[in-house]
Amino acid sequence: MNEDAVRGLARSLLDAGVGELTARQRKVILRIAERTSVSRDVNTQFDDQLSFGDRLADQVAAVGGSWGFIIAFGTVIVGWVGLNSVLLAQWGEPFDHYPYIFLNLMLSMLAAIQAPVIMMSQNRQAEKDRLAATHDYEVNLKAEIEIMALHDKLDQLRTEHIAALVERLDRLIADGRAVAERSAL
User: Fold this and answer.
1) Do 10 and 18 touch, CB atoms closer than 8 A?
2) Alpha helices, DSSP H only, in the chain?
3) Is residue 28 one of the residues assigned to a domain?
4) 25 domain residue, yes or no
5) Average pLDDT score over residue span 33-41
6) Nearest-angstrom CA–CA distance, 14 and 21
7) Which domain holds residue 153?
């Protein structure tokens, strides 16, 4: 697509020159001028660039943020406390005496590892949301420009139709005058 067509489209549709457009607006204008689609599957595009570590972090966040994890974790803690307080105390020396220092150490280590992994996943989700918002903006901008172009076409058709009606009315008036002049003679 040549530069003059893009400039004309930008001026007529956005009432701005090409130099005043952002890179994103220019991209949309070029897609309109080339009659190509702006829409794409942002999720697939984003998921294709994820590394193994990114996918692993998302899985850890999905498991760590589920009711299944909370229930299983609660069961492990109750089991740990029950094992060390009741069973092992009856048979001899418990593995982890009250106040369960080893359990606290394990919980602290789990939290120290799980929290940054979940934050990485949340940051990636925020990046994905920004990408989706950018894509939505581009699609909405193209739709708005296409609607403006349709309005321009409708206005042009209406103007042509009104001009044709005025021309036809002028002919009818002229024909009516000619008939009136003939009948007056």
Assistant:
1) yes
2) 3-14, 23-34, 42-48, 52-64, 67-82, 88-91, 101-184
3) no
4) no
5) 73
6) 9
7) 37-184
Q: How much is the average pLDDT of 124-148?
A: 86
Q: What mean pLDDT is reported for the chain?
A: 83
Q: Is the peptide bond before 116 cis (omega within 30 degrees of 0)?
A: no
> Does residue 147 sit within a domain?
yes
pLDDT band at 26 (very low <50, low <70, confident <90, very high): confident
Task: Write the burial class of residue 101 (CB in 10 Å: 0-12 exposed, 13-18 middle, 19+ buried).
Answer: exposed
pLDDT 10s digits, 71-96: 998 999 999 888 888 877 777 777 78
Residue 14 confidence class, pLDDT cut points 50, 70, 90: low
Task: Calculate the alpha carbon distances from 122 to 53, 118, 127, 142 in Å.
Answer: 14, 6, 9, 30
Distance, CA of 11 to CA of 21 (rounded, Å): 10
DSSP 65: T
pTM: 0.58
Contact 46, 58 (CB under 8 A): no
Q: Locate tokens 């530069």: which residue?
A: 3
Question: Do residues 18 and 26 touch, judged by C-beta distance below 8 A?
Answer: yes
Number of domains in the chain: 1
- At 19 the pLDDT is 62
Residue 12 forms part of a structural domain? no
Q: What are phi and psi of 65, to 5 degrees?
A: -105, 30
